[in-house]
Structures are given as C-alpha cells and as structure tokens.
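ok so I'm stuck.
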Amino acid sequence: MPPSPNKPSHTLSFSKLILLLLVAALVVVGIEWQPIQDWFKLRGYRPPAAVAQLAAQDTMNSYTRHLFYLNKPQLPSTVASFRQACPENKDTIVLGCYHPDQDGIYIYAVSDPSLAGVQQVTAAHEVLHAVYARLSSKDRQMLDIELNDFYKHGLTNQRVLDEVKLYQQTEPTAVLDEMSCTFGTELPSLPPALEAYYKRYFTNRQTIVAYEQQYEAAFSSRQATIRADDQQLGGLKQRIGSQESSLQTQLNQINSDKARLDSLLASGQNATYNAGVAGYNAEIRAYNAGIDSLQAAIADYNRLVATRNQVAGQLTTLDSAIDTRLTPHAQ
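replied:
not stuck anymore, here's the structure
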C-alpha cells in the first residue's frame, strides 16, 4: 500500500540514512586510507637486525623509521643480486635504490671494513626518497624552491656539484628528489630552512654526514697520499737523472785523464805522470762516491714506488668494493 500523502515514508528515510552512512564511511576511509594500507603492509613485519641497526645508526625518528620499515629494506651482498633489484643506470656505480611503485629499498652490502659508513649513508639517502614521495604538493613545492635556491647560490662542494650534474644526465626528471637525498646526507652545513626540513626526519643529521665523511676519507686520504708520492717520485727521478748526467761527465773526464796519464807513462814522462796521479785518484774517489749516492737515490725511488703502488692497490680494492657496474670498464 502506498504511503499516505500526509505521512512521511519511513522506507525513504531509512534509505537516505544508509546512503549518508555509506558516504560518511567512505570519507573516513578516504582520510585514513594511508595508515590502514601501511598497517596491512607492516603487519607481522619484524625488521632484521641489520636493518634495525641502520635505522638506529642514522638517528631516524619514529616516522622515518616507519617509512624505512614499510619499504622492507634488503641488503644484497653480491653485485648480481643487487643489480637484479636495482637494474637502473647499469653503467654507473650505485649503492642503493628505492622503488616507489614497489615500496622497496635496496642497499648494497659493502663488506670492506675500510668503507664503514657506506651503508648508513645509503640507507638515509634511500629513505629520504620515501619521505619526498609522501610530501604534500605544497610541502614539496616549498622544499623544491629551497633546494633549487641552495643549488644555484649556496652549493660550493665540488663533489656534490658533480653528483647533481650526473643526476641531471641519468635522472633528469628526479633531480630535485635526488638533491633532497644528497644534500641531507652529505653536506655538513645547510641553510636554516633545509636544516629544519631534515630535522623533521632525523634527530641528528650530522651523524649521517659523519658516516659519509668517514668512508669518503678512505678514498681521499689514499688519493692524497698517491698525489704526494707521485710528486716526490718526480723530484727523485729528476735528481737521479741529474746525478747520472753528472756521473757520465765525470766518467768521460776520468777516461780522458787516464788516457793522458797512460800516454805520459808510455813516453817516459814519469815526473809529469806522478804529478797527475793524485788528481786522477781524487776523481775516481769522487766518482765512486757519486755512484753510491746514485744507488741510494735509486733505492729510495724504488721503495717509494713500492709504497705508492701498495696504496694504489688499496684504492683499487676500495673502488672494486663499491663498483656495482654491470658493464666492463677500464681500471
């Protein structure tokens, strides 16, 4: 029976109520969807000890640690397994990658103890990608302005400048994202606005920078030693060449004087011969002393070459320890 015109329809009111409740539920779910999704992804997850240690060493706060764990960080220990997870830029040395579409962070497990700090810096770099990905449009726009301004007017670190240029070539659509990760993990001093940004995610950013400086010093100290040795070897080589030239001149004089003395003796000019013997013997003694000095200089040169090559070998070993390129390359 149709409802009376003067009587409200309870069926219609109930339907409207259900519809309103559904809409309200959808709004609530829409607002809370990300935390719910995160909860499902992290449900039952227990970070491996190495992953938890990286989070602690990098002084990640609770939010940053949440994003780090959400990406289930993995530490492949071979180039093959690492590159299977991070196939991009196969001709470039990379030590980590972040896959926003897969929610994954991969960090190359560098085993050389001389490079302690590499994994910590890489972990901080990659989690900052996850941070950047979750910024609101407004926050990202403000951050990009600060990053660009610093890059154009305040950045003087040549190594970081070179890194940015490389990103401009290899990842032209993600340069600002890479800047946000690189500046925060590698530069000890930043403008106040950027320092405030990173303070939102790490309790002590300088700890991460110290890790970067620690492993970078493993390379720079050896490179400096090699440069100093090469300079010293250049000086020794010049000195040895000068000594050899001087000794040849002395030898030529000795041979000439010997021929003259032999001629005097053969012609019976004994007095003149005897007068010249003392000077000739002095020439021989000076020449022999010069030979000893030359041999000592050559020994010094060879010892320094051995030392220099040992350091160069260490540098090659360090380079190999972080070389994740898949294509052949010149050493």
